[in-house]
Amino acid sequence: MNSTTLRPLAILVSIAVIALTGCGSIESAAQDDCTSIGWQIGSKGYNDCFKARVYERKLDYAPPPGSKPSPSVI
User: What are the boundaries of the signal sequence (predicted)?
Assistant: First the structure.
C-alpha cells in the first residue's frame, strides 16, 4: 500500500479509537459512581444506578435542546 492509502486509514482508525475511548469513559465513570456508594456489581440496585448514571452523563455532554450548529469561522 502506498502512503496516500495509509493516511486516510490511519485517520479513520484514530477517530474510531477516540470515539470508543469516550464511550468507555462515560461507562467507567458511571460504574465508579455506583460502586463508590456501595452497590455491588450485578445487583439490581447497581444495574438501576448504572443505567441512571450513564443517562445523566450522556445528557451532560449533549447539546442543549433547540441548539443549531454554527458555521466555522475558519
Answer: 1-29
